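Model the whole thing, not chain by chain.
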Amino acid sequence: MTCLDCAHEVDHCHGTLVVRVDGVLECTDHGCVALVRERHELVVVAPGVSGTSPGAPSDGGGEAR
Amino acid sequence: MARAIWTGAISFGLVSIPVGLFSATEDHTVHFHQFERGTSDRIRYQRVNERTGKEVDYDDIVKGKDVGGGEHVIVERDELADIAPGRSRTLDITAFVDLDEIDPIFFQKTYWLAPTDEQYERPYALLREAMTRTNRAGVATFVMRGKEYLTAVRADGDVLALETLFFADEIRDRSSLDLPGKTKPRGKELDMATGLIEAMSGPWRPEDFRDTYTERVEKLIEDKRRGREIVTEAEPPEPTAMTDLIAALERSVADARGGRKPEKRSSSKGASGKKGKPGSDGAASDGAADLSALSKADLSAMARELDVKGRSSMSRAELQDAVAAASGGSAQRKKAS
């Protein structure tokens, strides 16, 4: 399958952005240069290391978007 | 030149301007990697098939929506693209609104738009100048990487800026908060508070404000890397008791009018310098080794970093001797990679 973003030569990442509810962002692509939502087609919201903190967004655990 | 994160065309009326989208802001927050405590082992996220345990490539990943009962509806990327044909390549302005009408709560993030070719500079400048003259912003939606964005396109000096906005249903209902809306402050308190605000008023100079927390995090890391002492700052101020409110306001106004910053309690809490491993509490002082305080796991990790041969079969005592020898008597460790 051809990636349209590759075809258009725009800045994007094929990794999955992991958005932890404690606000920390990680990417499964170890070479990812910018941990921002808009560069990623695949995003999951996962619990943080210390679990959900008070006042943190309650997006649910492990939800893919 | 930076690469655009999206390319497409701004469309308003019959005019279409091919543009690229560039982030106007960047996050300077220190991003930490995760390690297992007592080791130098990174924790990483991988996309694995939960049944086989094998990593799955990007091209082989499809999205599935949980529809209950343990069932998922699988959706291909092409199918998602097909339900909004053209939307992912067009920024379609459907209305122009007064910028001042948009409540700041809706603003999400700012980008710049740039024409993709010189030949499009004229219609780009036309749209920019017209919006400057009218102080209006173009409201548009577009789709980028599987998400629809509501945006306001506005003139910002020589460029067009794009603000992503929250949709109205993404703004939380504040009626669920227990707000003191019906509480009316007394006259003198209100006068004092107003006076304080006026005394502290000035022009907006964003360059006057720095992310001092990130600077402290960076300094903490640098100090720990160099094995220096770390001094923590004072406790935050305690909430003002109701009986002290007027007195606190009076002192604040006097301080602000006198050009002094309000008094702050400060204290230097104990040092917590470290020379140990990630997650260890620091086992040495002044750069000298105190390996006897370290656990076997700590010593194993240090031995691995120092590339001590035969470390896996060593006892704790042997590891201690080997680490001390390999580090030349200093337990100062290398930065975890």
